[in-house]
Amino acid sequence: MKNRLNQLFALHFFNDGFLASIILLLPFIKQSLHLSLTQIGILTSILSISGIILALPAGYFGHKIGAIKILSFAILLYSIGFITVGLSFSFFYLVMSFIIAAFGFGIFHPIAFSLVAKWSPLEKLGKAMGDFTAIGDIGRIAISSIVPFIIVAIGWNRTSIIYGIISLFSIFLIASLNKRGGQIETKKNDLKISYYQIIKNSKFIFALLITFFDNLASSALFIFIPFLFLQRNVNPSILGIFTSAFLIGNLIGKTTLGRLADKYTSAKIFIIAEFFMAVFIVLLTLSYSQFFIIIVSVILGALTAGTIPVRSTMITESTQHHKEYEKVFGIGSFVANIATSLAPIILGSVADKFGIVNAFYISAMFAIFAIIPAFFYKKMRLLFNSSIQ
Q1: CA angle 178-180-184, nearest 5°?
Q2: Averaged over 154-182, what is the pLDDT?
């Protein structure tokens, strides 16, 4: 079981690294094909909305066909996407290529999370979710960091094709997972639980509300932190120090809070983390000392990212009686991606009308809102009949 999880973690490492890499191709593609920034925005949005559009279908087909088969299909799609991006010579072909790649990237996460839930013992689920999310960040940093050097050396076309070919080899890992997993992991679930029956579970609804408000509170902070610091007349040349501190905190939070959830219960850790998230968001707006800002950035990075494995654990706990994890994480990803898409729009609008500081106060308010369903989640007893009957 542990070996299968390690292989899945390796796939997540490469998946998130490749996703970050395809974004880094865009400046070079723009210059080469003389694209406008509007066209670049369209290509980026294709990747962004794929998580919303594909989350529910991914869960459905993962349940009907088998999670590992769908995971193989996802990797095949974004491998083809990379190769066709490298062969593209016009904006039209780039759009088609990005759509293919976006289908693969959009399918991957809900299916992969469902497998982590399925293959992890419940008492160690928080640790598994934390390590799984953290390894994706490491892949994003490690793989994408070398992309510009490769592009300068051989060009963006060849780089994209090479990345596509490399990602195709990931399918061999999938074949190994399939072989080791046996029929119990790859065949479709024998239980016939509809989406309506899943959503009837009140505890699962609270987990979804937790996910929604937590993402509203945290997902756009990294985008707006530099604007807050620039308003404070922070030297632009050292902005990278603060954003790096935030990212370091992300890794610390993902690997730490999940383990604490295993020890002290997920709801309790989430409530504490979300409360302090709100506190440190406010502290960040009041901070002028560069040293203090770095410390707050690390802590805030840990709290904003650390709640991801905790709330994923809560989603799993609330549905463990039927183990329809493909559908469950499809719904969860759908809700999370909607919140992630709304957050920068809401915060940007507030910042334009009322100032950047008030946008951060709105984020803190969303964090407090996330605590409310967490309290109800904590007090609820899992009712099997509410979802199964």
Answers
A1: 70
A2: 79
